[in-house]
Design goal:
The protein is α/β, with parallel strands linked by helices. It has one domain: Rossmann fold, CATH 3.40.50.1580. Helices cover 26% and strands 28% of the residues. It has seven helices and 15 strands. The strands form three sheets. Strands 7-13-10-8-14 form a five-stranded mixed beta barrel. The chain has a two-stranded antiparallel sheet with strand order 5-6. A hairpin with a 4-residue loop joins strand 14 and strand 15. Helix 2 runs parallel beside helix 6. The protein is globular and about 55 Å long. It binds 1-O-phosphono-alpha-D-ribofuranose (R1P) and uracil.
Length: 291
Amino acid sequence: MNHLAASELILNEDGSIYHLNLRPEQIAETVILVGDQNRVDKITQYFDTIEHKVQKREFHTQTGTYKGKRISVLSTGIGTDNIDIVLNELDALVNIDFETRQIKEEKTSLNIIRVGTSGSIQEDIPVDSIVISNLGVGFDTVMHFYQSEEIQLQDFNKALEEHLQINPRNSKPYVIESDASLASHFNSSEVYEGFTGSNVGFYAPQGRVLRLPLYDNSMKDKINSFSFKGKRITNLEMETSAIYGLSKLLGHKALSVNAIIANRATGNFTKDGAKAVDNTIKYTLEKIATF
Ligand SMILES: O=P(O)(O)O[C@H]1O[C@H](CO)[C@@H](O)[C@H]1O
Ligand SMILES: O=c1cc[nH]c(=O)[nH]1
């Protein structure tokens, strides 16, 4: 079997993986991903125990227990480019033997749940609500660097391509499903089921104009009006697509849970973002405790 070279599987002197700075025993099989490193404490404040806190760059991890369940909470920073690092290194922690530098025969499948903030693009999904992403669409390029055609919903890709008429210089949007068992467990009358778009930026890529004009002024409306097989795009953020894509390719279960802090259709922004995020955290922890 192939031995992974020092330049490919990069380990630090203490045996931890390059960016996350974690050793294999430090990661739980259920992992909560958040963008904001300060959100890690906001989640682990509810834990019964905390084993360790590790930080390198924007990657801040704490592992502990909530209602007896071992959970790691890890911040990814912003963007799908960071997700490429986080998902590959998380997978390496459980599925590569760091001593022999070989891929393990028996694989571990992680439960990966993102707790993020997001902007609704539909008038009827208000600020302070929670959206569970059944589907994710990537406007980023990460998954196009992997052999991922088979896990993409090609009929959705085609319908989107036709509807959006995106700048040909941009990458082609790709659609990927969440893990069905997690999505069904997290669903309830308290949340909206959604189809989440992940963009490569917060401003023009999400149709926001401050001083700079957009390449295509109608893109936000076109994303809003897309409908295929009874599904419409509900909200925009910056990580879900690559989390779904890399999780599916690597054999992990993923779900994205979104605290809606902005409504782009009405122009509203939440009056209490901390509370919106806290409600989403509590909802997620209770669902994890019973999964
Ligand atoms: O609140 P987080 O998890 O960072 O998520 C959202 O917030 C950031 C932009 O403000 C992006 O990362 C977006 O996906
Ligand atoms: O509108 C929003 C709000 C949060 N995060 C985003 O990426 N977009």
